[in-house]
Amino acid sequence: MELQISNIDLKWVGEIDESIPDIWTGNQIIKKVIVCRFDYYKDMYNQIWANKICTNVKFQEKGYGTLMIQKALKEYGIIYFSNAPQLNFKILSNDNQNDFRYTTDNFEDSNLGKFTNRLISKNIIDASWVKNPFV
Length: 135
Known about the structure:
This protein is of the alpha+beta class. 23% of the residues lie in helices and 32% in strands. The protein has a 4-stranded antiparallel sheet, with helices on one face. The longest helix is centred in the middle third of the chain and has 13 residues, at 64-76. The N and C termini lie far apart (42 Å).
């Protein structure tokens, strides 16, 4: 199954065509399934930040999220990943409606922390791109 990636309105969406049986006829039909999504945020310096990243549970650990990030990196060059806890954002962010760059209190144990560490270990992103946006 080939991942089809589109960039629309501050979002990257990865979809595949999945063959499923029609409930009435039993014939196989093709349905688009969202596999992964990457929302980004542009800060006041026009830097691109990962805002939300998610992969459908059914498709996790298959490299789809990584493929989507790689495609976004080709377009933007650098994507920053925040390791700031949520409390920082409640206090310091001027854009609480759209800014979701925070993580849990312990970045290393969060899904985002584990994902970014895999990206670093595969030399897809640089470790210096993981930082607190308020420091």
